[in-house]
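Bit of a strange request maybe. I'm writing a small parser for structure token strings and I need a real example to test against, not something I typed by hand. Could someone generate the tokens for this chain?
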Amino acid sequence: MGNSYAGQLKTTRFEEVLHNSIEASLRSNNLVPRPIFSQLYLEAEQQLSSLEAGSRADNEEEEEEEEEEGSESSSPPIAYQMKPPPEGCCTTDGFCQAGKDLRLVSISNDHIEVPSGFLLVGAKSPNLPDQLLVCAVDKRFLPDDNGRNALLGFSGNCVGCGKKGFCYFTEFSNHINLKLTTQPKKQKHLKYYLVRNAQGALTKGSVICWKGAEFRGRQSSSSTCSSALFQPPESSGPSVTITSDPVPATNPNTPSGTQQTGTLTNSGPPKKRHKGWSPESPSSTETWNLQPNPQIPNKNKNDGGSLSSLPHSALIGPASSPMVASGEPVSVPDNLLKICKAKPVIFKGHGNFPYLCGNLNDIIVSPLLYTCYRNSQSISRAYEQYGASTIQPISEEMQLLLTVYYLVQLASDQVPLIEDLEQIFMRSWRESHLSEIRQYQQALPQTFPQVPSQIAPVTSAQLPWLAGLAASSCNDSVHIIECSYSLAEGLSEMFKQIIEGKLVKTNYVVILCASRNRCIDSCIVVTGKYQARVLSESMLTPADYQKEVNYQLVTGKVETLGSYFSTLCPEGDIDLLLDKFYQENQGHISSSLYASVNRTTTALDGTGASVCTSYNIEQHQIRPFQLAVAQKLLSHVCSIADSSTQNLDLGSFEKVDFLICIPPSEVTYQQTLFHLWHSGVLLELGLEKEHLTKQRVEQYVMKLDAESQTKFKAFLQNSMQNPHTLFVLIHDHAHWDLMSAVHSLYPQMEPSMGLVDRLLNCREVKEAPNIVTLHVTSFPYALQTQHTHISPYNEIHWPSSYSNGVDLYHENKKYFGLSEFIESTLSGHSIPLLRYDSSFEAMVVALGKRFPRLHSAVIRTFVLIQHYSAAMMAVSGLSQMKNYTSVETLEITQNLINSSRLCPSGHGLMVVLRIPCIPLAAVAYERLYHVRERLALEDNFEIILGNPNSGITIGKHFVEQLKIWQKIEDADWRPQTYLELEGLPCILIFSGMDPQGESLPRSLRYCDLRLINSSSLVRTTLEQELGLAAYFVSSESHIEKVVVNDVLESDQEKLSSTDNEDEEIVTEGSTSEKRSPMKRERSRSHDSASSSLSSKASSTAFCSESSPLLTTGDGAKSPHQVLGSSTEESGNQYEKQRQKIDKGAQAVSKNLPIAAEQLDTKQNIKNAQISITSSSSSPFSSSSFSSVPTHNSFILQTFQCVMTKASKQPPIVLLPKLVYDIITSTDSSGLPKSSSLLPYHSVMWASSFRPLMSKMMTCTEQSLYYRQWTVPKPIHIDYNNRNEGRMDNFHPRRLLLSGPPQIGKTGAYLQFLSILSRMLIRLTEVDVYDEEEININLKEESDQYYHQPGDVWPDLETFKKIPFDYTIHDPKYEDASLICTKLQNLSSEDRSMSRKLEDTYMHRQTTRMRLSKYAVYNTYHHCEQCHQYMGFNPRYQLYESTLHAFAFSYSMLGEEIQLHFIIPKSKEHHFVFSQPGRQLESMRLPLVTDKSEDYIKSPTFTPTTGRHEHGLFNLYHAMDGASHLHVLVVKEYEMAIYKKYWPNHIMLVLPSIFNSAGVGAAHFLIKELSYHNLELERNRQEELGIKPQDIWPFIIISDDSCVMWNAVEVDCSGDRKSEYTWTERNVSLKQILQHIESTPNVTHYALIGMRKWSSKTNSAEIKEPFSCCHVHDFIMLNVDLTQNVQYNQNRFTCDDVDFNLRVHSAGLLICRFNHFSIMKKQIAVGGQRSFHIKSKVSDTPVSISPAQYICAPDSKHTFLAAPAQLLLEKYLQYHSHRFFPLSLKNYSHPVLSVDCYLNLGPQIAVCYVSSRPHSLNISSSGLIFSGLLLYLCDSFVVASFLKKFHFLKGATLCVICQDRNSLRQTVVRLELEDEWQFRLRDEFQTANAKEDRPLFFLTGRHI
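Reply from user aminoacidic:
Good idea to test on real output. This should exercise your parser:
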């Protein structure tokens, strides 16, 4: 009846436990099995519960069926059969059989009568996972709070139809249509109590705590909103104690509550074992601390929650929060904002949250913390998959306590981050369960002090006390309010205290109510003015942020701010001061600042004297890094093409086209056009002709704006019309606009949003086989989610400069990016390049309190404008205005205004003022423009408003300046990119919510980011703002780290002299120190209100702007004014600074290359470029150009252009304090804190339970981290990219290139297009041998032509009359011995030697040829047509081939030969198999009379070795689709690799004895097998009535490098018969073979071949269409006629020449078709190159010369690991002159070679004779030979045969035999001693070991 039978002995239970016990003891390492009966009876309640909970996790959502499987025995689970429902009743899910609706969502507001003693509960139906069915159940049959005391059985009523009295749960489950596949059990299907909420609606309450489920705890009550229905996780288990991370003075070690401990002797098999359980899992000695009421982890499948930071707004507002409001509403006071000075932010925590009413505009309620808590309770799948299912999540009490600890540790100027809190929870949970999870994942680095892992859990009763104790140490920054009944009273109390002013010092109020049923309700209110303002503003989306600022500007709310500023100035309104200044100085101003310099410049220009030489526009050139990245991109594209998925067929493309998509920024657009124009890519790709116009270039770049659709449509159309062009769609700045087209939320704001999705993700792009999409970005994180389109294998990351300290790509520039900027803030660096301005921040905070309703962006902007205005006035002479600006701003302004004075040509520096909000940027521009005009500085520097939607506008005066500097003569020229502003002194107000890829010039000196939106803390946003300052510095003048010695390191005076009040005080509880106790001490220098020892060493400390000087601790002075402030500095102060410098210099002098006293001269300082700093601060600052007496100053150079330093030093970056803290602080792994922020707005963390990123992570590992731990939100472009198969999510032709900002990615991808185009051209081309025939001069010139030039076939009778041409004409045999005949005009002239003899593999002449459509391909070719041919068709699986043995006997080998065929299923029709056993019988052969257009009769055999990838075996296109039989002949050891690459080819596998044999063995076996097969086919078909001679006798033997075939077409239509014209064209192999096979009387020819192609072929060579001569490479062999002529199976080289000579001497016809030619591809691997001759003794490769290939018998010579025959052939090729000295260059007296042709080298001629009776031999009468070669001669060679030939006196003989015995027998049998003299020392052998069967030689001299 579905009740637990724990404690009752039942047969099945006994059997199950017995079975499990036996199984466990067999599998366990523990020798003592656990007693069975103790399992059945003696389990304590808690032990049983823990086992139950551990094994039967609450998996109803995912593993319902699996839980019923019982033990893991081999018997299958018994399926449950439900009783069929009665006829005519309702069977709809969610309705009872009477047809009444039971779903909670439908009847939650209905009145339901519940009998006394009954409760409403929710039942779960497997078919409705998101619904609860309402049931009324007698509460006696339900458990109490401890999961006990439930009566066995069931009693329930149907609330739909009202039927009562169901006594069996099975019966009841049938009635309510649960439709179960497993045994119905109330414990499993009755899940939740149902309760009425404050509105009276029925909602899901707490979990019903069935026995064993007390560990699952109470589910947080939830609203009826469907998104809030969160399911329990896959597993949960017994709780192990959860530890905390206390702050000092708080120690939760205090014993509290009773600790129940049960010791489990063995973990044992649970009653219903979890499928992941193994008896070894938890150790038998482990002690478990069981917690009274631990909490279930809640998992929300559509995890909407864990957002980047508290400052990050949730998509779900308060309405959809899964919190139920209860009790009395709480009234928000009316004047709250006025009192608080900021809107308090209330974060809902655990439990119920009360209603709020009243002044709701003055508060913000957020569910973010609730989401964080919930996510932190769901144990991550990462741990579950390792079997961590028995580990309990962190409890609610501990979560809240840890939150309090965290808030206590925050400094007053820090804002809480969700990431921090999540990591604290993670850390605490891990430490609690370290023993369980240590084996699964390496422990994280410590974030907090280590705590003992076994402590008693915190109870809800102890919580308020512990929280209060923790908060007691923080000076009331965190205030705890404890409530008795509900949060409402706590909130009311808090509002009351705010009104009374009691919470002025309090930043956070923690309200908790822990009394109700021991369950916690909690919330946290942020009341700190700074924190509340940052958090509330962070909840605005970017669009809302803009709206809010716009509204405040439009409605005039900011005017109060302006009027407030007016009151600050002692002399009244700043504008009045400006007007007064303007009137006073009008007419005098020109001489003061700029004009004087300008005059000087022009004067100097006229004489050509001192013009600035620092200005040089960089030439466009590809850097080594860019080339490396381009090559990486190319290799990734190639790997897509090479993969077996057939997603990209590079072989089918002839050219490259492209389109670059960029964000809608006019400057980025012009910048990209500029790069494209100068790269020359358009010309290189052949897309444009020489004279490019701008309009033509614009066709290739597309702004993603409203007009882009037209251009994109044209691009798509172009791609469809040109299937043989590869289109590369480049999406630059790809992290911009990742808005889903479906969820484009703000179409009225940004019409372009969602365009990327609409265009780049459209179906046409995804499906087009010729479009490759390349996303390019500096911030790829948002494209690396769980649903990304881009495969991790298709990611290309910018390489790092160094690997293991080695400079990989030597460049003369060093990239200076984020990590280098952060590094500059560490102690020991000369210049901190990242800074913040504390006086500015202090003013902003003060004004924020005064104007709480104004957005802080407005306040910050107005303050900064005020500072810049005051600084400009101060520099212009109104020195009283210094007090109304900050030192940072004053420094910037001084340097800007004075920079052009230092350069004879007037070059100056650029200041970028980043104002994201466009309306605020416009306000700033107008104000600064006005101030500049009033101060008459309009010719001194320009102010530029950089709006993404418009171009650059600058004054005419500055345009003229730029034209002079850049030598531009075009009258209409205007700068269109920021890069063209090089050297222009200007303030660039850079607006737009995000930078969109704009690059800045090298004259950028200051990047002022003080106004960036610091509340929106997302990694991409922060990094792209800082990316504006990324820079290349000259690697020679790279900013050096200071050399600091021990004296300076411990200089206490300097260490303690930092009076840095605004810096965070490092107290015991300071987070920054707590988080990283091992952190390197940073220079506490980056605050301009600090003393001059604050190490903000100016940008000039010895290697920068101008004069490095020490200043004293006068806080009002800038610690680093590049050009100083005024002339007021006294000489006394200067002397102090000098002393300090001298002191420092002496301290460091021993480490410096120059003596300390040399520091006095300015030149040496410049040369040394050393910055001296203390470990904590950099004491250098610089003083004004005018403030220092020149006679003893440190000024480097009186006039020094800012451009001279441009290449040496990166810009200085000013940040908001909040951002500065995040960037410069590190987490426990050593990474900057910014790295652990949420990567992007539209993604979210998959789980709070994620490991920290590691400092050692590569870009690839970071990508995998984000792919595992982030998921896109519904508004994200990738949100819907979810398929069933995980791998299907990736788009195969999509790549991602990521690299730091401004590093040169544009140049890299343009270079990639260039090399891709070159490669495609290269892919369609091959190197073919292009050599003239050799030995043409030895041909007998004859006027007789046997055939007409136009004849297509030879006439048999005529052909028999053509004499055989013995001479070899194939150019590959240029270094082979000449074959002499009596007919030749022999001379002793040297044959031209074009090669060195030692060149084993000569460099032969090749030419590049475009592949035709009839080419043969290697494995790299993929196209639609030949998928099936190659075996990649799904019908032919790779493994669908069978191995067949085929044996035949051959007398010459004296044994039976066994070959193996591998025959794919698709090729079995070519073979005959025996019927019963499917034994291979023969290969089918056609008839001579068969005629078919689509059939090639001759089987093709291709012997191959070492060329599984590069061999040309794809004959599909060459055969033009004709059916043919193609067999690859491979060696046994290469069978597997060839089968892998060519799964659909028939393979003939040679016996293993031929593994080291040469090509002769393959040819020999092919021919013998084919003849044997011919006999079999004749016998088989004779039975069918076919004559034996009608069976087709030809086979083709082809090389594996034959690539194309050509045919000559002769036109004989001239007047005279002898006149003809000819053309050669590429034709298919099918056409050639069918032509040859149709030759009349074809069976009378023994060998048919064709000419080798050459571009130099002349008419004479093809005038005779048919020749009787040697044929090579591709031959048709008549196996019938050549039955008795064999290939020599031992041969490695020249075996075809040897065979041709044997065939001819046997009287058989060899015909070469001269009108057909074959092209052979040069393949650099395999073939003969596979044979390496190396020593058998040493493994070290030693080069062995051919002279060492033979040795004296029995010598101690080093034996070689190579076949004897190969050594012989190679030796004779290079050193035969040692055997035949008289023959050297003696062509009229050749060496007589009997029955064989061996290559004796090109300087020795041979004469071939056959000893066979009736053979055709040349007439040797009159020929006198210089030598005799007898190679393995057989019985046909007899003494009388040799005596016919005449030899020179002193001629030499060489006899070669298999062994020494045969040598002696041969000498005796042939009576050689009669004419030849032998000596003992003339015997040799090949240098083989005895077991390798060496060959033996005997040489002698003719008497």
